[in-house]
Specification:
By secondary structure, the chain is an alpha+beta fold. It has one domain: 2-Layer Sandwich (Alpha-Beta Plaits). The protein is 47% helix and 16% strand. It contains 4 helices and 3 strands, in the order αβαββαα. Strands 1-3-2 form a 3-stranded antiparallel sheet, with helices on one face. Strand 2 and strand 3 form a beta hairpin. Helix 2 crosses helix 3. The longest helix has 27 residues. It is rod-shaped. The protein binds copper (II) ion. Copper (II) ion (CU) binds next to helix 2.
Length: 118
């Protein structure tokens, strides 16, 4: 009887430990940032940002909202930070918060994807 109780107690303890450990690990490895990307124009801009950012190390998901002109990025803070994410967006040719688009990349965009183009 004593051994059964011991087994039960150790089982409960191990469950409590694993669920606690996994939830704190999830919190530590995932962060979210919303970046203003005012210069995006259309679905092509959305695809361009989502595709190139998804290739960056540490980025888990990228969602561009064309109507709100915002880019939501879920990332691993141990591998990348919001500043690097903004630079990555700027490198594709779009303004990201206070980081201005790289002019070379911006000039390479189709006319319809440049500011004021439709
Ligand atoms: Cu576009």
């Amino acid at each position: 009887m004593k051994s059964i109780i011991l087994v039960l107690v150790s089982l409960i303890m191990s469950f409590a430990f694993t669920s606690c450990a996994s939830s704190s690990a999830a919190n530590a490895s995932s962060d979210e940032v919303v970046i203003k990307t005012e210069t995006i124009q259309c679905g092509m801009c959305k695809d361009r940002i989502e595709t190139s950012l998804s290739e960056q190390k540490g980025i888990k998901s990228v969602t561009v909202d064309v109507d709100k002109k915002e880019t939501t990025v879920v990332f691993n803070p141990k591998k990348i930070n919001p500043d690097a994410i903004k630079k990555a967006i700027a490198a594709v040719g779009y303004d990201a918060d206070d980081v201005e688009a790289e002019s070379g990349a911006y000039n390479d965009l189709p006319t319809c994807c440049q500011k004021g183009g439709h």
